[in-house]
Design a protein that fits this description.
With about 200 residues, the chain is α+β, with helices and mostly antiparallel strands. The protein is built from four helices and ten strands. Pathway: Amino-acid biosynthesis; L-histidine biosynthesis; L-histidine from 5-phospho-alpha-D-ribose 1-diphosphate: step 6/9.
Length: about 200
């Protein structure tokens, strides 16, 4: 099987980012965004998706967390696009639910090449550490738009830490399922012949 890896950089007046991704990894992560809880979420994403991931981000955290979280999602989305190439043989669709104590998250994904995002839920607290809770939703949206995903996600719970973490774990498991190679398939999973 061809290696499904990518290395993507992004540099703007607000952030400088380097991301490497191995879709068929072991779940190893080296992450430094300057936002401790976000680093924890990206590490969890790698662990539960079995993606090898490195993220180095120098962002304008003196402003707030928005540009860092958004731009990492954009860069990671571009890395998935690059690593998956023509998407030949992938399963394409997946859905997962993941609990974390009282919280439960759900993700339905189609690696379709047609970006769409829908979210159902609210976060119980405004922030977790130095990360604004609603940035988890924005991370998913930005990732979907830049990885070409149709992504429906939702969460419910009583603790924002649990809600956000359940979302990242659920996203990881769904993307792992959807990007796996189906050995029975020699082409792309589309009657159009491409994704």
């Amino acid at each position: 099987m061809t290696q499904r890896t990518a290395a993507v950089t992004r540099e703007t007046a607000e952030t400088a980012i380097e991301v490497t991704l191995d879709v068929d990894g072991d779940g190893d992560a080296t992450v430094d965004t300057g936002i401790g809880f976000f680093d924890h979420m990206l590490g969890s994403f790698a662990t539960h998706g079995l993606f090898d991931l490195t993220v180095q981000c120098d962002g304008d955290l003196e402003v707030d967390d928005h540009h860092t979280v958004e731009d990492v999602a954009i860069t990671l989305g571009e890395a998935f696009t690059e690593a998956l190439g023509d998407k030949r043989g992938i399963r394409r669709f997946a859905d997962r639910q993941v609990p974390l104590d009282e919280a439960v998250a759900s993700v339905v994904v189609d690696v379709s090449g047609r970006p769409y995002f829908d979210f159902d839920g609210e976060f119980s607290q405004d922030a977790v550490g130095e990360m604004t809770s609603h940035m988890a939703q924005h991370f998913l949206r930005s990732l979907a738009m830049n990885a070409g995903l149709t992504l429906h996600a939702g969460v419910e719970g009583e603790n924002a830490h649990h809600e956000v973490e359940a979302l990242f774990k659920c996203l990881a498991r769904a993307l792992d399922d959807a990007t796996r190679i189906d050995e029975r398939r020699g082409d792309v999973a589309s009657t159009k012949g491409e994704l």
